[in-house]
Amino acid sequence: MHCPFCRHPDSRVIDSRTSDDGLSIRRRRQCPECGGRFSTVETASLSVVKRSGAVEPFSRDKVVSGVRKACQGRPVTDDDLALLAQKVEEALRQSGQSTLEANDIGLAILEPLRELDEIAYLRFASVYRAFESLGDFEEAVAELRAGRGEPNATEG
């Protein structure tokens, strides 16, 4: 780590603390050359491999913008979406992988979205899982009903 004051290529860690959310470490450092003190924040990065093969850093904002479209007209707040994106990121980090397929992120979004709003879940799932017929929707609705213990309307 270069000193921001004198550009010396080394520094000594004086103190390390985990952030409140547990996703980063704040380190207090001192330059052995000029004695200047400064802080750094270290985080483990998540990379996403897109369908095109391009790799980019994970972004909660992209999760929120993708899900926001499915939540249009639904009683879902920006705070709800921010919490959903946080849950998704935590689930992805718990997988222990630093590089994820875009498909894995979509799968990680489905369950928290289902808990948040079932209509938004159906909208998102219809695009994400590429529903091609009314039968696909009926199947998804049957899964939702089964999850809540409701009788399936297609059963006689």
Number of helices in the DSSP assignment: 5
Global geometry: elongated
Strand-residue proportion: 15-25%
For the record, give the distance between the C-alpha atoms at the N and C termini, rounded to a whole number: 68 Å
Give the averaged pLDDT, no decimals: 88
Poorly predicted residue ranges: none
Helix content: 40-55%
- Main sheet record: 3 strands, antiparallel
Strand tally: 6
The chain-level structural class is alpha+beta
Elements, N to C (H/E) = EEEEEHHEHHH
Compute the CA-based radius of gyration: 22 Å
**Order of strands across the widest beta sheet?**
1-2-3
Protein name: Transcriptional repressor NrdR
Family: Belongs to the NrdR family.
Zinc finger (unnamed): 3-34
GO molecular function: ATP binding; DNA binding; zinc ion binding
Summarize the structure.
The protein has 5 helices and 6 strands. The chain is α+β, with helices and mostly antiparallel strands.
Mind explaining what this structure looks like?
By secondary structure, this protein is an alpha+beta fold. Helix 1 packs across helix 4. The protein is elongated and about 70 Å long. It starts with 11 loop residues before the first strand and ends in an 8-residue tail after the last helix.
